[in-house]
Design goal:
Layout (H helix, E strand, L loop, with lengths): L3 E5 L3 H13 L3 E6 L2 H9 L2 E8 L2 E8 L1 E5 L4 H9 L3 E4 L6 H13 L7 E5 L6 H9 L7 H5 L1 H4 E3 L2 E4 L13 E3 L4 E5 L13 E4 L3 H24 L5 H5 L2 H21 L4 H15 L8 H4 L3 H4 L7 H9 L5 H11 L8 H12 L2 H9 L8 H14 L2
Parallel strand pairs: 1-2, 1-6, 2-5, 3-10, 6-7, 7-8, 11-12
Antiparallel strand pairs: 3-4, 9-11
Helix pairs in contact: 3-4, 4-5, 8-10, 8-11, 8-15, 10-11, 10-14, 10-15, 15-18, 17-18
Bound molecules: nicotinamide-adenine-dinucleotide and D-Mannitol-1-phosphate.
GO molecular function: mannitol-1-phosphate 5-dehydrogenase activity
Subunit structure: Monomer.
Organism: Capronia coronata CBS 617.96
Length: 389
């Protein structure tokens, strides 16, 4: 019998996708967020609408049976709700997980249910749930006596979540426009007592092929379109994809990552090609007003070691493959500086202005100077530094 699912982050993917599947599986969804106005809107609404848009037209559904807690003021309520919940999910952004670890740890410590809590982080990050678990079990957040019996109180599953949910217009209230495609893969191996019943999840034994395929195909192509688009003054991703040069850049980047996905995992070249074709058509969807600045947001995260550019490029360079297109994408990401509302883009500009190229390259990408990718990235850092002096 489904009960309560606590979801941290009532934003685009939280309201637009995770809550949808939890709701359809019979859970009451309790959103936890920190934005006063959003919390009020959720608590004043009985339902909101999700609309899928694509070439086949529009399809809408109503989401009901939810409420929200503001963790800025009502942490006790958050902890009490988690103590009696079945599932905790989050989609707050990888860098925000450190702020939600303590209430989850306290909720686990206060468990009143005998079945362990299922914890699934839904962030675009390799092994996001493992990272969240590490934060939850940090001695600052969890006492040793709770940690000792953790397996009886909570179980954890890594996940790869894929659905494009753009930033919604200001007048949309809680309603969300999304694409029809979705895939949510969750690893079973941490759920010793059985995984939760959530409709639509694809349960897998080993998540690595799924998360690498997703991050290094969907997000690599998306980010390539976003950074090239932004630097050409183009507003949306579908407009960027309508530019023949940018479309070509996206294809070339995906040809490179395909070598890694098919070479490393049990995914044939034909399967990967089909996957690529689907992605290209998804990100070209003219019905989704997805802006380049959303998709390019947080460039420091996106340039980091295991992320959508350096992650595949480093592994390909180690295997002797060409990574020219991915490196051109990195250059465009380096040029995503001082973008309004994006703190990381301001920090990126400062790093590139204040540090010698060698130091900046290592700081931004985590690559050591002896890595086969390092010199190629260093050249781009030098180029961008000299252009933005
Ligand atoms: N939008 C997509 O297409 C999509 C798809 C797959 C995965 N994701 C991933 O999901 C995550 C969220 O993305 P999004 O697009 O929904 O972003 P978003 O900005 O729309 O939503 C994030 C929400 O988290 C809330 N938040 C911030 N700090 C918080 C805190 N301390 N406690 C609780 N809530 C807090 C914000 O107020 C916001 O409502 C990211 O990791 C993203 O990579 C997004
Ligand atoms: O959410 P980010 O910042 O990691 O990446 C931006 C987009 O590429 C991303 O949100 C996609 O829309 C999503 O990953 C599709 O499943």
């Amino acid at each position: 019998m489904p009960g309560v699912a606590v979801h941290f982050g009532g934003g685009n993917i939280g309201r637009g996708f995770i809550a949808e599947l939890l709701h359809e599986s019979g859970f009451e969804v309790v959103f936890v967020d920190v934005v006063d106005d959003l919390i009020d809107r959720i608590n004043n609404a009985k339902s909101y609408k999700i609309t899928e848009v694509g070439a086949d037209g529009e399809k809408s559904k109503e989401i009901t049976n939810f409420r929200a807690i503001n963790s800025k003021y009502n942490m006790d309520d958050v902890v009490k709700t988690i103590a009696d919940a079945d599932v905790v999910t989050c989609a707050v952004g990888p860098n925000v997980m450190k702020f939600i670890a303590k209430p989850i740890a306290d909720g686990i410590a206060a468990r009143t249910k005998s079945k362990p809590l299922a914890v699934i982080a839904c962030e675009n990050m390799i092994n996001a749930t493992d990272a969240l678990k590490e934060l939850i079990t940090d001695p600052k957040n969890m006492k040793p006596e709770v940690l000792k019996d953790l397996d009886k109180k909570a179980e954890f599953g890594n996940s790869a979540i894929d659905r494009i949910v753009p930033t919604q217009p200001a007048d949309a209230n809680l309603d969300v426009v999304i694409e029809s495609f979705y895939e949510w893969c969750v690893e079973t191996k941490g759920f010793y007592s059985g995984h939760p019943d959530i409709n639509g999840i694809h349960w897998v034994g080993d998540l690595e092929p799924y998360i690498e395929r997703k991050l290094y195909t969907v997000n690599t192509s998306h980010a390539t379109a976003a950074y090239f688009g932004y630097n050409k003054g183009i507003k949306t991703i579908h407009e960027a994809m309508a530019d023949p040069d940018i479309k070509q850049e996206v294809h070339e980047a995906l040809e490179e990552t395909a070598h890694l996905i098919s070479g490393k995992h049990d995914i044939t070249e034909e399967e990967q090609q089909k996957y690529v074709d689907t992605i290209v058509s998804r990100i070209s969807n003219p019905h989704l007003e997805d802006v380049c600045v959303r998709v390019g947001r947080a460039p420091l995260r996106k340039l980091s070691r295991n992320e959508r550019f350096i992650g595949p490029a480093a592994q390909l360079a180690e295997r002797g493959y060409d990574v020219t297109a991915l490196v051109r994408g990195v250059e465009m990401a380096l040029r995503f500086q001082n973008v309004e509302g994006d703190d990381e883009s301001v920090e990126l500009a400062k790093i590139l202005k204040s540090m010698p190229a060698e130091e900046a390259t290592t700081k931004l990408t985590g690559l050591d100077p002896d890595h086969p990718l390092y010199a190629k990235i260093l050249d781009k850092v030098k180029l961008v530094q000299s252009d933005t002096k």
